[in-house]
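Quick illustration, no need to memorize.
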Amino acid sequence: MDKVVSVGNRHKIYELCKTLLSGKWAQINESELIIKSNTDGFTNQLFYCFLPEKHNKTKYNKIVVRMQDANEYQEYFNPTHVLSMGLLLSAKGLAPKILGVFDSGIISEFIDGRYFSASDDHNPRAVELIAQNVAKLHSSEMPIPKDSTQQLMTNVFEVWFDEKLMKSIREGLVYDMIQKHKYETFLALDLLDEMSWLRQTIQELNSPVVFSHNDFNRKNILIRETNDKNSQNLDLFFIDFDFSSYAYRGIDLGYYFSSWGQKETQFGYGVFPTDSQMLPFINAYIEEMTTIYGNSYVENEMNSRERLIFEAKVFALYAFMVDLLFCIYLADSNKKPDEMINAEKSYGSKRVSAKDIGFYCYDMFLMNNTEFKEYVVDKNKDKPQEYTYLISKSTQSICI
């Protein structure tokens, strides 16, 4: 996580803290400032900064400096939009408080806590809180384009996963890695066919468009807890809005449930939750949305428990797909063969989850885009080819 902070960055950070934060931050010498670099970010540089121990009683004695860096991901987000979203969500209490703004980044409060974990998925208070905050996020008004769904789908399935990467999978570097290490899921399934199926399925599902985080993994969800003898108080914050936009409601729901109960922070592997295990989150989400929008929200069939659970299941497959495509991209562009291990893990999770979810055959009734019905595969019929995705245009039947 930590790496040496350059002399140039140390001086720049000190001047930023001194100028934007003032107070105790302006009274210390540059050599007294404690700086730790975080290497987890892909689109920016993160620096954790601390005042000397003698200033521990200062309200914001720990802060985070985030600098946006020129890299290959910058074409996928708008820095002005990111700043606007961060400021508004900070004011709503959904994101860490922003303490300062400069030309290439922000200074925010340091959340002395941890990432949302598997144990939180079994904690009713934590589940209720994250569902409420997701509802508040989805109902937020942001000064950005109001529908970026097609742009997002194009970025994921075409721009990001371009012809060069497809060729690498068919006959290039990635293909060689798959063959050399005998990655079971990649050998068993046709990734390009699955991408095509998933994209069409998402478009036909017609999930409502809301303001969406779009990168709702555990490392972007922070928990701060205060324990006393009588209660457990929890604060929950979302971070990293580089890819946030108005997009499908199901994206954040799918991301949450794709990592439900998994002990690993990223690329975990586990059993997909049952409908009854999904309900505490879904119920809390619906209740908060009803508080925000009134009874008309819950009276709309599009917002029923069944509909939200179905959307979460479809977009959980999307979350697995995005993870594995990102790992393939890293393996190919950065020549990091170890990333294919994570790609296989995500692909395997998608494969197992598809079975756990019960995705054998669905007939979607698209009248008013509100109803769907699950059909059980005939037990007397030969077992369908495992995880082969077919779409019948005449019946709108989605079979796996």
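Residues 7-109 form a domain with the Phosphorylase Kinase; domain 1 fold (CATH 3.30.200.20).
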